[in-house]
Write a structure and sequence with these properties.
- The protein has helices at about 1-5, 10-35, 40-60, 65-80, 90-120, 130-165, 215-225, 240-245, 250-265, 270-280, and strands at about 205, 215.
- The chain has about 290 residues and is mainly alpha-helical.
- It is globular, with a radius of gyration of 22 Å.
- The chain has a two-stranded antiparallel ribbon.
- It contains ten helices and two strands, in the order ααααααββαααα.
- β1 (about 205) and β2 form a beta hairpin.
- α2 (about 10-35) crosses α10.
- The longest helix has about 35 residues, at about 130-165.
Length: about 290
């Protein structure tokens, strides 16, 4: 393999330069597209994500069967989240599912990164594992952890917008369709405090700096899983450092920020790679 590519260093450098320039330009164009035409961007991104997940399901990647099963279930979760009328237990069910997928991708990425670092330090030799096998294993887990983390996070954001708009206390643009009373959680639409004889959700509450009160799980799901950093009702900025004061929870926030940074490139990866290959073919680069 090395002998085959020997003497083509200039061509390889040119191909790498084309890849980097294409990635930078694609990142800028995607950001501008999302800012100027968010509806068409979201529809296109959702379509590409669904096509990618279905293609991977059809190929049944043996090393990542758990992710394929998870995305089959996710399609059912999305259909439940977009159904009208919205069941009172649906928001919590959706947030629980995407939180599980978020933690699964987080764990997979950590394991993949650890495998890569162990290979670089030669620890794989202790277990008599070939470096190329260990590196392939680590890179694969790291890539798929980030890849499915980005897709799951994007689906969660779309479901959060749709569910909150259906409940009526949130509107992405404009005023909400309902007035929020003091004893109602704007995320799930259920009572915050219930009597012993009444049916409802009993759990801890959380008050934002704007004095709106929510179920703790609901507002955490809204901010972390649904990628929202504003109050669901008045849209005042949420202080995530205050909400997640526990140092053990902060890595999840940082991981979410990493996924947000990678989301443009990961979600549109097939289109970008296809464009790069088309440019290389046109220029006669192999």
């Amino acid at each position: 393999m090395h002998a085959k590519h020997r003497g083509h260093e200039a061509m390889h450098a040119e191909m790498v330069l084309i890849l980097i320039v294409t990635l930078v330009i694609a990142q800028l164009l995607l950001v501008q597209w999302k800012q100027r035409h968010p509806k068409s961007y979201n529809v296109s991104r959702l379509s590409i994500s669904l096509i990618q997940s279905h293609i991977s399901q059809c190929h049944l990647l043996s090393r990542l069967v758990c992710f394929e099963i998870a995305f089959i279930i996710q399609n059912g979760i999305i259909s439940i989240a977009t159904r009208k009328p919205l069941n009172c237990t649906t928001p919590r069910l959706v947030y629980k599912w995407f939180l599980l997928l978020y933690k699964l991708s987080y764990t997979t990425g950590i394991v993949g990164y650890s495998a890569v670092m162990f290979t670089l330090f030669g620890i794989n030799l202790i277990f008599r594992i070939k470096p190329e096998d260990a590196m392939d294993f680590g890179v694969s887990l790291l890539f798929y952890g980030l890849y499915y983390g980005v897709l799951g996070r994007d689906f969660a954001e779309m479901c959060a917008d749709f569910m909150a708009s259906t409940v009526g206390y949130y509107s992405a643009s404009g005023m909400p369709t309902k007035h929020l009373s003091d004893n109602i959680c704007a995320v799930c639409g259920q009572q915050i405090l219930v009597d012993v004889s009444e049916e409802g959700i009993i759990e801890n509450t959380y008050r934002l700096s704007c004095n709106h009160v929510f179920h703790e799980f609901c507002i955490r799901g809204w901010c972390i899983v649904g990628k929202k950093q504003t109050c669901p009702y008045c849209k005042e900025k949420v202080d995530l450092k205050r909400m997640f004061s526990n140092p053990w929870e902060r890595p999840h926030v940082m991981y979410g920020q990493l996924l947000d940074w990678l989301r443009y490139l990961v979600a549109w990866q097939p289109v970008i790679i296809g464009l790069v290959q088309g440019i290389n073919y046109t220029l006669g680069l192999e």
